[in-house]
Write a structure and sequence with these properties.
445 residues, alpha/beta, 2 domains, binds adenosine-5'-triphosphate, ATP binding, ABC_transporter-like_CS
């Protein structure tokens, strides 16, 4: 039996299937980077400028993130390496303390929990990590490994624990006779199944899965994911499933949250997200999934450029420095076609992706020889003049001040709810292209 003291706190709060089990609101986690007097400064690239940032400026690993995980479902959290997925997971489990925001689990804000209540949370909410090799003690047999959390939470007597461990090994697709084997005697996929059995041993309701299949071969990945799905249906489990791989997310999730540079770019039900993406970052990620159909061009969007530093993230929309759909400043008098060419030019100057020769060659390459009319054209002409003299920084500054910084993408943080095309789940998209009626001055798609 479980310890009554632990059982009585969170475990007896029933949440009906489909109702919120975990509600995260405005969650923020900043890491201090203060490394003492000598290590106090760092160099940051902010657009065209190299600026000295004080190393005491925090790393904004997770910044104002809100979403809900319904009971019995899987929410997939996807994004490039370094976007804050693991930090978010560890904060939910209180393995690290949040800087701000609330984490409601079964209606209780876990940011306030301590002592027995925190122990109860750590029984009810389990985590599985990516590397099944390093998370299993090589000196222990898998039976006692699976029993360890039961022992820590005072569940069953020795005989009961062994019986339960053998049952669990079978449940996760292993042979109960393997109870006496060591981790090195198992394959990677089998070791991740041992991890699963260990997490399940304390009868949790919620499992945070942090890239659990990323170290496995694709065919083994699918088998482990299928087992996880079967166990979810059988035991009513709820998963927060973290992965950088959209194919894995598609396989396992009911709902998907797309994370970029510490914030959520888009959240929607799986089919809605894959069929009706509303954020250029999501489109770019979808475009990067290998397409088995040779007739498909597979060019739904391409991710170019580097992810900016989370110490000094871009203002407004964090994706704007890589976004192919940057919106024209509202008071700029340009046609859609002209803005497309200006955008391409600004981006190429930012990344220095061409050789600056004579002004006519540059004008030909980016504007087919005809610059936009009026003040916009004068600015482009001046920038081209700078480039022809090798003054890349001056050209970059001018273009940034005229075309990038005044854009709504730089001046306002986007947060919109859009009508879903598929199903009736709420669809959140942090992109100004989704402003009702179209963003003012927008010339994007
Ligand atoms: N303890 C820490 N101190 C300072 N910065 C940290 C710390 N942990 C993480 N970070 C930074 O926070 C940001 C988010 O990291 P995190 O590991 O959460 O991202 P991730 O999306 O899980 O990436 P990955 O898939 O590579 O693990 C990164 O810039 C990382 O360098």
């Amino acid at each position: 039996m479980s310890s009554p003291a632990v059982e009585g706190i969170l475990g007896d709060r029933e949440v009906a299937p489909g109702e919120p089990l975990l509600e995260i609101e405005n969650l923020t986690k900043h890491f201090s980077t203060n490394s003492g007097l000598l290590g106090g400064f760092g160099i940051e690239r902010d657009g065209f400028k190299l600026s000295l940032s004080r190393a005491t400026d925090p790393v904004r690993a997770v910044d104002d993130v809100s979403f809900t995980v319904p009971k019995g479902q899987t929410v997939g959290l996807v994004g490039e390496s370094g976007c804050g997925k693991s930090t978010l997971a560890r904060t939910v489990l209180r393995l690290i303390e949040p800087t701000d925001g609330s984490i409601n689990y079964k209606g209780t804000d876990v940011t306030d929990l301590s002592g027995e209540e925190l122990r109860a949370l750590r029984k009810d909410v389990q985590i599985i990590f990516q590397d099944p090799q390093s998370s299993l003690d090589p000196r222990m047999k898998v039976g006692p490994i699976v029993e360890e959390p039961m022992r820590a939470h005072g569940m069953y007597d020795a005989e009961g624990r062994e019986e339960h461990a053998r049952e669990l090994l079978e449940k996760v697709g292993l042979d109960p006779q393997h109870y006496n084997r060591y981790p090195h005697e198992f394959s990677g996929g089998q070791r991740q199944r041992v991890n699963l059995a260990r997490a399940l041993s304390v009868e949790p309701e919620f499992i945070v899965c942090d890239e659990p299949t990323s170290a496995l071969d694709v065919s083994i990945q699918a088998q482990v994911l299928n087992t996880m799905k079967e166990l979810q249906a059988e035991m009513g489990l709820t998963y927060l499933f973290i992965s950088h791989d959209l194919s894995v997310i598609r396989h396992i999730s009911d709902r998907v949250a797309v994370m970029y540079l510490g914030q959520l770019a888009e959240v929607a039900d799986k089919e809605e997200l894959f069929e009706n993406p509303k954020h250029p970052y999501t489109e770019a990620l979808l475009g990067s999934i290998p397409n088995p159909d040779p007739r498909s061009s597979g060019d739904r969007g391409v991710l170019r450029g580097d992810v900016p530093s989370p110490i000094n993230p871009p203002s407004g929309c964090r994706f704007r420095t890589r976004c192919p759909d940057l919106i024209a400043p509202a008071d700029l008098d340009v046609s859609g076609g002209e803005w497309d060419r200006i955008r391409t030019f600004v981006r190429a100057v930012d990344r220095r992706t061409f050789e600056a020769t004579g002004p006519d060659d540059i004008a030909q390459e980016f504007f087919q020889g005809t610059l936009p009319s009026g003040e916009v054209g004068d600015t482009v002409d001046t920038a081209i003049g700078h480039l022809a003299e090798g003054r890349w920084d001056d050209a970059g500054e001018l273009l940034k001040d005229t075309f990038t910084e005044p854009s709504v993408c730089a001046t306002e943080v986007p947060a919109y709810e859009v009508d879903p095309d598929h199903g009736d789940g709420r669809h959140f998209a942090a992109c100004h292209l989704n402003t009702p009626g179209g963003p003012e001055g927008a010339t994007g798609p």
